[in-house]
């Protein structure tokens, strides 16, 4: 058997195995379009190679060699480490955020209350858009367009339990401060944190821009943030891809609320552990934040802030929830290097912007906002849609190519994106081909229907 015959046989087997595996994965993921296209690709790329392997004498070595090169050269080019240069620094905010300005804080204001009157006197520009979303049914409302009894009730239960955790974000500190090795303690926190539910944990020095200026929710509303901790522990938990794929229906808010609860529980446990060692620590969980969790997580090396304004992780994409623990206990920090492959992909992708029902995600290039070059979503438009649907939407998260399930197929593609900028551009077009530019919303599973 000559070298050309060996190459045809080898290429045929590789193409067949890879595409059949991808088709099986797609069937498991309930992606029928992708499964059919992967099956077609298996036939298209493997059968010609098997024919040439058997009938090479009838085609001649010249034609055989040309066909082999046509297949091998693109493969080699796509596997070469041609990375996007890391010549950009993280966009460091030049100013801090007042938590009272975020939509969640504004939605909690009781019309006619003193806080309500004071806020809109301070920020009159927000009064008109806020009056508009207040006319809509609201999150988890039975009158909302996506109301679903079981998932909405489950989400409400999750949020209520999160509310009980708020009293545990701080607590008494042990009288005796234990001397610990910062490296061993850091390793313990990371490994134990994963054992109790975290998908990943990173640690960074707490920076001034991580902190809100003024508290916008809860009993301390209106108080200045006074947080003198030195370190921040970022905790992320993966959201179930099946539930996210049903966005903007009920399962997405059931899943979001559940992961707020899970990541909040891990943060409260870690903060309590640190206080038991004699060091001050505070958990920052849903409804009780003093820090901007996505910025902390980015600087802790867990991802980048993408076009949709969410943390983009390599492993799970934006399909995560985040909590934080701040402390003065000595810890070993991660060295976070900007991952320009993610930012570069977001620059070209725009799938979240194309699919956003509220047109809240910017479609253009990054722009300067208060001295920081970034994408800034229209939070008013986004939250307005939430109050119509009754859920936290999640369509941008659902359609993101980085949100595909964390299996060998998608992990290999994400590796290719980070390894080769040409691969990155091709991967985007292939994602549109196999999954559609506007991916379909998956049905709510039958087990969630209780009436």
Topology:
Elements (H helix, E strand, L loop, with lengths): L2 H26 L3 H23 L1 H4 L1 H19 L23 H6 L5 H9 L4 H8 L14 H17 L16 H14 L4 E6 L25 E8 L2 H4 L5 H27 L4 E4 L8 H7 L4 E2 L5 E2 L7 E8 L12 H10 L1 H5 L11 E3 L2 E3 L4 H11 L5 H5 L8 H12 L1 H15 L16
Antiparallel strand pairs: 1-2, 2-6, 3-6, 4-5, 7-8
Helix pairs in contact: 1-2, 7-15, 8-11, 13-18, 17-18
Helix content: 40-55%
User: What class do helices, strands and sheet pairing give?
Assistant: alpha+beta
The average pLDDT value, as a whole number, equals: 95
The proportion of residues in beta strands is: 5-15%
Q: Which oligomeric state applies?
A: single chain
Shape: globular
The strands making up the biggest β-sheet line up spatially as 1-2-6-3
Termini distance?
66 Å
Number of helices: 18
Spell out the helices and strands N to C: HHHHHHHHHEEHHEHEEEHHEEHHHH
Tally of DSSP β-strands: 8
Low-confidence stretches: none
Based on CA atoms alone, the radius of gyration comes out at 25 Å
User: What's the main sheet like?
Assistant: 4 strands, antiparallel
Descriptive report:
This protein is of the alpha+beta class. Helices cover 49% and strands 8% of the residues. The protein has helices at 3-28, 32-54, 56-59, 61-79, 103-108, 114-122, 127-134, 149-165, 182-195, 241-244, 250-276, 293-299, 340-349, 351-355, 379-389, 395-399, 408-419, 421-435, and strands at 200-205, 231-238, 281-284, 304-305, 311-312, 320-327, 367-369, 372-374. Strand 7 (367-369) and strand 8 (372-374) form a beta hairpin. The chain is globular and about 85 Å long. 42% of the residues are buried. The mean pLDDT is 95.
């Amino acid at each position: 058997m000559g070298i050309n015959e060996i190459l045809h046989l080898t290429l045929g087997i590789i193409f067949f195995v890879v595409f059949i595996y991808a088709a099986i994965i797609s069937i498991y993921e309930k992606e029928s379009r992708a499964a059919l296209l992967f099956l077609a690709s298996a036939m298209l790329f493997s059968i010609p190679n098997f024919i040439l392997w058997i009938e090479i004498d009838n085609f001649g070595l010249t034609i055989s060699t040309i066909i082999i090169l046509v297949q091998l050269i693109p493969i080699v080019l796509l596997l070469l480490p041609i990375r996007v240069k890391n010549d950009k620094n993280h966009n460091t905010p030049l100013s801090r955020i007042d938590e009272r300005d975020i939509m969640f804080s504004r939605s909690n204001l009781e019309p006619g209350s003193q806080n309500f009157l004071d806020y809109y006197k301070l920020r009159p520009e927000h009064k008109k858009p806020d009056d508009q979303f207040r006319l809509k049914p609201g999150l988890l409302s039975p009158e909302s367009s996506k109301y679903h009894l079981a998932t909405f009730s489950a989400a409400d239960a999750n949020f209520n339990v999160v509310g009980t955790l708020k009293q545990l974000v701080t607590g008494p500190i042990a009288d005796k401060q234990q001397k610990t090795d910062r490296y061993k303690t850091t390793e313990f926190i990371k490994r134990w944190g994963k054992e109790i539910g975290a998908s990943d944990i990173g640690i960074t020095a707490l920076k001034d821009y991580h902190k809100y200026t003024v508290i916008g929710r809860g009993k301390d509303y209106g108080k200045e943030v006074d947080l003198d901790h030195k370190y921040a522990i970022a905790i992320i938990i993966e959201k179930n891809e099946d539930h996210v794929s049903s966005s903007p229906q009920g399962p997405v808010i059931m899943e979001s609320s559940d992961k707020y609860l899970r990541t909040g529980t891990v943060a409260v446990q870690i903060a309590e552990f640190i206080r038991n060692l004699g060091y001050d620590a505070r958990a920052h969980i849903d409804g009780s934040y003093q820090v901007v969790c996505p910025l902390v997580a980015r600087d802790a090396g867990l991802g980048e802030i993408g076009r949709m304004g969410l943390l983009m992780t390599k492993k799970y994409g934006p399909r995560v929830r985040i909590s934080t623990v701040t402390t003065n206990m000595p810890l070993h920090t991660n060295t976070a290097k900007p991952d320009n492959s993610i930012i570069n992909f977001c620059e070209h992708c725009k799938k979240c912007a194309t699919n956003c029902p509220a047109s809240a995600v910017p479609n253009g290039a990054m722009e300067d906002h208060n001295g920081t070059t970034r994408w800034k979503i229209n939070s008013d438009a986004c939250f307005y849609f939430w109050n119509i649907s009754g859920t936290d939407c999640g369509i941008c998260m659902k359609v993101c190519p980085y949100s595909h399930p964390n299996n060998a197929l998608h992990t290999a593609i994400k590796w290719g994106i980070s390894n080769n900028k040409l691969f990155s551009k091709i991967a985007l077009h292939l994602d549109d081909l196999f999954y559609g530019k506007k991916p379909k919303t998956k049905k709510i599973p039958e087990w969630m229907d209780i009436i």
